[in-house]
Fold this sequence. Notes:
Shape: elongated
Strand content: 25-35%
Oligomer: single chain
Largest sheet: 4 strands, antiparallel
Structural class: alpha+beta
Radius of gyration: 24 Å
Order of helices and strands: HHEEEEEE
Helix content: 10-25%
Amino acid sequence: MKSATAIPIPARGNNHQVHSTTGEIPALRFARALSSGNSLFRPFSIPKPYSSPEDIFCLRETRIINGYGRISLFNHEIRVANVPLRQEVDVHLVPDPGRNIMQVRIWFQDVLAHSVDLPLEGFRVHF
C-alpha cells in the first residue's frame, strides 16, 4: 500500500486550505492584495538622520559627557571630542558576536559624533 505524501501543516493552511471566514486560500488572497497595492507592507527605508540599519536595530543608552569629554560605558572610558561638556548623547550598541566586538556609535543632536569598536567581554545587558 502506497502512502499519500503528507503536506506540512503551514503549507496546507496557507496554500491549499480555504479559510473559513474569508472563503479564500490565504496565499492567493495575499498575492492579489500585493498586486493591487492593497497591503500594509512597505519597502524598508532608513529614517534620517541614520545611515545604517544598525542604528535602528540596536541597543540604546543615554550618557552625559563628563568634565573631561568622556563617557563611561560598562567600565570603558570613551573620549568623545566633538560634543560639548555635560551634554547628553545617545549611545547605540551593536553587538557583533562573529568578530567578538561591540560597536559603540555615539550620536549628538542627530549627528554621529563618534564610533568605536570595543571587546564584547564585559558588556552585560539586562532586559
